[in-house]
Fold these 2 entries.
Entry 1:
Amino acid sequence: MSNLMARLADRHLTLPEPAAPVASYVPAVSVHSGAFVFISGQIPIKDGELLATGQVPTDVSVELAQACARQCVLNALAALQQEIGDLGRLRRVVRLGCFVAAPSDFIDHPKVANGASDLLLDLLDDDGKHARAAVGVPSLPLGVPVEIEFTFLVD
Amino acid sequence: MSNLMARLADRHLTLPEPAAPVASYVPAVSVHSGAFVFISGQIPIKDGELLATGQVPTDVSVELAQACARQCVLNALAALQQEIGDLGRLRRVVRLGCFVAAPSDFIDHPKVANGASDLLLDLLDDDGKHARAAVGVPSLPLGVPVEIEFTFLVD
Amino acid sequence: MSNLMARLADRHLTLPEPAAPVASYVPAVSVHSGAFVFISGQIPIKDGELLATGQVPTDVSVELAQACARQCVLNALAALQQEIGDLGRLRRVVRLGCFVAAPSDFIDHPKVANGASDLLLDLLDDDGKHARAAVGVPSLPLGVPVEIEFTFLVD
């Protein structure tokens, strides 16, 4: 038994069954080798136009916010392609940091972030499975409802 | 003198004495080799029940929020164990991203996050010393008061 | 054509031209080798005094918040120097996570974060170019208007 397990037992602490994630991502991603690419926080801008502005769900519906999250993915992949040249070098989506502009009583951040996570899974199968944090924020740059930063692993 | 130090001097900028962290974590963590495990944002759920919902300190006391932070640690260790099999492979806790649901006049995010940091130090001694960011947010998934994401280093 | 590109085409999704970042940072940073140093969230404290408290722009002007962001950089470099001994070992600024205390109608988080980004570029030229996420939050530890966490690459 590892020292950590012994200490947990000594303190009468038990590790739970790993909770199933409440959305379409995975609890943990291991990275043993390869190169990281860190992508700056992406906002839902397309052809120079913001897809939406304001908070979810008061100004922006959850469905529109999901579309915004999808656009963040496309913008991130474009930034990645520019950085590494060939998207065939993408090995794994490692982490998403999802920020949703929302009031204090909003609880559906995972639904919004799933717009991004589901698209990554659809495009990349197991290579698209990532760790994720999704949180509310009062405001984001330019007033957008969603901002997502990405960490990728590449060959 | 490095070029950076020369430029700092040229711009009449001086590096301060490193500030002692305001809580039970360390200013910096170096990672020279090993494998990273990124753990998704953990929420204070135990046996399928949320430990609390709402903002700190209005709906949830700082003490209860600290207990929530501790549960996030246990859930993260469970996710890590599922990922790597043997927690004896854990070499270092690298980083915590702590999000505390709180109003605009709350200032005690470090106290809440210490619920997680203190437990990690208690369980892992020096291997548990981590870098940390703790910030307020208006809302979190399912209405929980605390969400924490983790980066671990493993053998 | 990679499988990813094929799937994008199959789903009638096109990658945009990579958007120019809205501020003084870069869309992507690649890390192929070297050691990471993770710096805890830095707050604008100097000589034991907070430079400001409150939200931007209501309590703290954008200009003062930029000065706060600059102080976070100096504090981070001090923590890095303490960790690695010689700042000449710094190879690349990898990532900044910038949190700005602000109300729901604030949109100029990038301007605030530029206080940090511009200083890093001024001090380090290309080595200072980093990925960045900048978001609003209702509150930060001790009531400060800006908190920034850093990831550095060192030799």
Entry 2:
Amino acid sequence: MSTAARATRLDAAFSLDYGYAVHFTRDAFDPANPVLVEALRADAADGVARVLPVVDSGLLEHHPDLPARLAAYAAHHADRIALAGEPVVLPGGEASKQDPRHVEEVLDAINDRAIDRHAYVLAIGGGAVVDAAGYAAGIAHRGVRLVRMPSTVLGQNDAGIGVKNGINAYGKKNFLGTFAPPVAVVNDERFLTTLSDEDWRSGTSEAVKVALLKDPAFFAELERIAPAIAARDLEAMGVLVRRCAELHIEHITGNGDPFELGSARPLDFGHWSAHKLEQLSHLRLRHGEAVAIGIALDSTYALLDGMLADDDWRRVLALFQALGLDLVAPELEDPALLAGLQEFREHLGGLLTVTLIDAIGSGVEVHEIDLGMMGQAITRLQAASAELDATRGTAKG
Amino acid sequence: MSTAARATRLDAAFSLDYGYAVHFTRDAFDPANPVLVEALRADAADGVARVLPVVDSGLLEHHPDLPARLAAYAAHHADRIALAGEPVVLPGGEASKQDPRHVEEVLDAINDRAIDRHAYVLAIGGGAVVDAAGYAAGIAHRGVRLVRMPSTVLGQNDAGIGVKNGINAYGKKNFLGTFAPPVAVVNDERFLTTLSDEDWRSGTSEAVKVALLKDPAFFAELERIAPAIAARDLEAMGVLVRRCAELHIEHITGNGDPFELGSARPLDFGHWSAHKLEQLSHLRLRHGEAVAIGIALDSTYALLDGMLADDDWRRVLALFQALGLDLVAPELEDPALLAGLQEFREHLGGLLTVTLIDAIGSGVEVHEIDLGMMGQAITRLQAASAELDATRGTAKG
């Protein structure tokens, strides 16, 4: 019998429906606030959701009463929620993604406290803590339930509302991770009021990004409200966070590739250099700060390439300035920066795909980047930034 | 403004289609055999699939020419396949799932050899090696592509063809893992010819299991071909492997819950005790051997509970004996065995759900197990096994 004649096959095919809600609320731990208890849907026989809280140490500094308030909330809803012990505290910022021991701390607690596939990890904190806790939840028992409460602008409008988790390894951002949609996301704007100015403004760059890629009206709105945001107006920030989150959710659910099986990564505008700048700065640069520089750089590349009009380019730089975000960092001159393009290709797989813009609100994919021209873009951006600094105060917001 | 009035929500909802083929072939590394090259679909610009091989050390002992034959196969198909270096060799058997360093070895290679989300891990070996390599593939870059070539009966009819991966941690089977369907599975029956007698027969218990749960005609077929299988007839084993794989695929794709979000785990018949017996025996018992004992035990429980007829119960025990599988092990007397029920509940989450049978080919779920009766079932099974041993040779197959 020939080999070909012997070969037979079975086909395994199925579809899965995914769904989760992103809630916007104020003071989620007010016992009268029903959002969190409704997010923690229990299907155990007794109707009580068992919950392991994981909390960001930086958030705890500003909200030292958080564990007590969470415990009081759970006690008030004892028929629906049972906390599985005290919160696991992870270090705020990228540190929680840099050292695998923090994921192990969450896994230890999942094991010790018998968190099963019908119980919850409740991850409360910045994007990095939510990512690390979400990764632990994603791999324990092949996935325990996750409810995220992102506490930063970046977390609430981007990192905390999507379908990914991850930690860094081998010196690479998010080398380890899974696609694992949460059960729910609860965005509590109360957390935003205690952010440092740096965290407050750095989260806005992802909103600028999605506006540049998809929504010129939102970009114009951001130009209008940038001064209020820079002055820490919570209502103005609420407009930014909600619309940015909405555009992200539309992207995830509407692009046909939520788990990124293709080569395209249309929301990664400015991100190849942003990831590298963060590393080269040894995390001195926040993700959002690096993204602002990355977008400014790739916009400048698009300008030099003749793809983007000078006027649009100036609006991009001016908006970042109005939001208080720097356009450059010393790491732009590190020769290792351009190696980030190759790493980015590897992370995507296959073809290099970089998203640029050819107008405000119009993203386009390119598959070739001229390294020489990218070098010129760095020089041009540095010059433009110096000029803007010199005229700061007279520039229009 | 009241809290309730402020609360707003966005809903993220999407569907994903999953699909993969399970191929049955003989001598997949024959350059004339197209199955593997077709399974390694490339979408890189050059049409070449980059492949990191991960191979089971136990398989290598019996097939020392495997790396050379794989390299020759890739060279013959150089327009379609490029090997990313020599195979990573993982220890055969449960050892590769017991020590997280083996997952790290695969992750190191994925990083060192720049395996991206469009490149492949080709996992070749027993169920444990395929599980460990698959876990590494599942978490690197949030999932690189995986093609599995299970080399054992158990791998080809069960462990290697589904949607899960995992390793052991905290002394618990598969504590860490993900749901990550492979791109394809290639079952090469040539690998079965070099299995030890223990590995050959231990893989048959999963076929007995699915027959007992779902297919009385398959069970009768197994009774008929058991002597040929015990005599290492490859054609008879092919019948068992293919029908068992088919029932598994039908289950995964047809039950509406391939990623096991509910409490039910209908294919885990006999598995609460099997997992525990493996641990208590310090892995002296193979998974399939433990499953045979676990099924015999839960069938005996069903008998004592009045759920299963005496005649059906005897057929279950007789088939395992005809296949050369033991019905008991000293670990049945370990008091820690019954603690396995609680661990099983935790792993499932929520409600305890154990699948029993009320007839050959008819699985039923129960949510209560009487520990006293389970103790009696152990005693009854030990007695029945001793009786069968005494009459071995005269018993009908």
